[in-house]
Amino acid sequence: MNIVIFKTTVCTKEEASQIKSLLAVSFPAYQVNFDLSDCDRILRIVSVLNIQVNRVIGLIDSIGIQAEELGDEIPPIKDRFQSVNTNLVDNIPLVMSKN
Questions:
Q1: Any idea what the CATH number is for the domain that residue 24 is in?
Q2: What are the pLDDT digits (tens) for 41-97?
Q3: How far apart are CA 67 and CA 60, in angstroms?
Q4: Which of 34, 45, 79, 88 could lock 75 by a disulfide, CB 3.0 to 4.6 Å apart?
Q5: In the 8-state DSSP scheme, what is residue 79?
Q6: Using CA atoms, how far apart are residues 96 and 85, in angstroms rounded to an integer?
Q7: How many domains does the chain have?
Q8: Measured between alpha carbons, how far is 81 from 72 in angstroms, rounded to an integer?
Q9: Residue 73: what pLDDT?
């Protein structure tokens, strides 16, 4: 199973429907859906065949909508937590008990 996710400039359900129809004619084996509630206006394509990313982008572009493939890279764990403020520990008062 192949899955490709695209960020798009689709603004309306009508535009999404137009793209779905266009892709259905050109690529009948593709399952196409949108998530317009996502800030990236996601287009998701699933297929048992290889997805022709450049042709999909070209077709969408031909009707004045932009699309770009979103990568599936997951940053290493150390990079995902890079923004954590490690100075917070320095700001916690140290309390020692007298036992």
A1: 3.30.70.100
A2: 999 999 999 999 999 999 999 999 999 999 866 555 555 455 555 444 555 455 555
A3: 7
A4: 79
A5: H
A6: 24
A7: 1
A8: 18
A9: 62
For residue 7, CA distances in Å to 34, 39, 61, 63, 97 come to: 10, 9, 13, 16, 56
Residue with tokens 């077709």: 59
* pLDDT for residue 51: 96
Q: Which pTM does this prediction carry? A: 0.72
Residue 39 within any structural domain of the chain: yes
Number of neighbouring beta carbons within 10 Å of residue 22: 17
**CA nearest to 5, candidates 39, 32, 37:** 32
Beta strands in 24-73 (DSSP E): 31-35, 42-47, 67-70
**Domain assignment present for 54:** yes
Q: Supply the range of the domain harboring residue 31.
A: 2-73
Domain assignment present for residue 90? The answer is no
